[in-house]
Every structure is written in C-alpha cells, then in structure tokens.
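Box 3.1 A note on notation
Throughout this textbook, protein chains are presented in two layers. The first layer is the amino acid sequence; the second is a token string describing backbone geometry. Keep the layers aligned when reading.
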Amino acid sequence: MSFLDLAKRRYATKKYDITKKITTEQIEELKEIIRLSPSSINSQPWKFTFVTNQTVKKELAAQSYMNEASINDVDLLIVFSVMENIEHFEERNISILPEAWRTGFYEPMIKSNGEVATKSWMEHQVYLSLGYFLSACISIGLDATPMEGINREAYKKILPKDGYTPLFAVAVGYADINDWTHPTVSPKSRFEQDEVIQSI
C-alpha cells in the first residue's frame, strides 16, 4: 500500500476494537521506530514511556478527560515527554554533537534566546516525533489517537520521577469499524490543495 493510501486511511481513532490485541513484536517495532525519530541537530530532548501495565494505564486514563475510554480500551499508551533541565540537556545531549552544530546553531540560534525559548524549542522536537510515530503506526496496521487533552501534572505524578515532563500521549490499538469517526463512516475532511498548498 502506498504512503498516500495510508494517509487517506489514517485518522484519530475514537473507538477501539477491544477484541484485537497488539503483539509484543509490534510494540518492540514501535519502540525502535520512535527511537529513530528526527529532531533538529539530532538533539533528542525526549523520553517515550510505553505503558502496558493496566493499573498504571487506568490511572493515566482517569487523567485524560475525553480520552479516558480510548485509553482503557487499548493495550498500549505512549507518553511523550520532554527533558526539564536545560543544563542536563546540554551536558547529555548537546555536548556530544558536532562542534559546528553546537557553536554554529544551538548556542547562537537557540540558547541565546533565553530559557523560555530554549524549552519551547525542545518541546517542538518532541512534537516532530509525533507525526513520525502516527505514520509508523498506520504503516504496520495499527490505529492511534494523539491526545494533548491530558492532565500533565497528574501524569507527571503517576509516572516515574525522572526529570522529564509529559507533553501528550498516544493510544494505540485497532479501530472499531463502527467508530463514528472511522473514514468508512465519516469520510476524512481536509481543505482542498489550492487552499493549503502554494506553488511558486
């Protein structure tokens, strides 16, 4: 199946088929795929927490507002988090990069703008991995629900205290064909090309 066909099929799933289970092999494949996510200057200021423990998953679901049912109906939830401490980020991640990336980009273009701008840039890198991950899911036959609608502070208290702050989460499983937002029920809606694409 072409990537275009997959793009037409992928959607933010609202209802999952609880009879279909993700395999251990699929989870391991997703772990390796997400590890290879792109980021600016290979900065990788992230952590991806794969939650399969049903008790922990249920606790997180209860802090996920309108997405609680979706999380409870799947076997896998991934929490995308960003590093909190800039100094630690620079020591662990930036220091090992080529000097040209450090002194030619990070220091003059990012760090020089201050802490708030640097942390915003770091968060943007985590968001880059989201689109990559959603495409990966559909490419191996899995459906997913990206969700910013989570209580970040509650997630942080539930998950291990490891210097990372949760930004958003993704539920992964198999869509219920009767999901009211499934493309076969509600065709995917996007603006026309001439409204969103400019050719020069």
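The chain has a mean pLDDT of 96. The domain at 3-76+125-172 is CATH 3.40.109.10 (NADH Oxidase).
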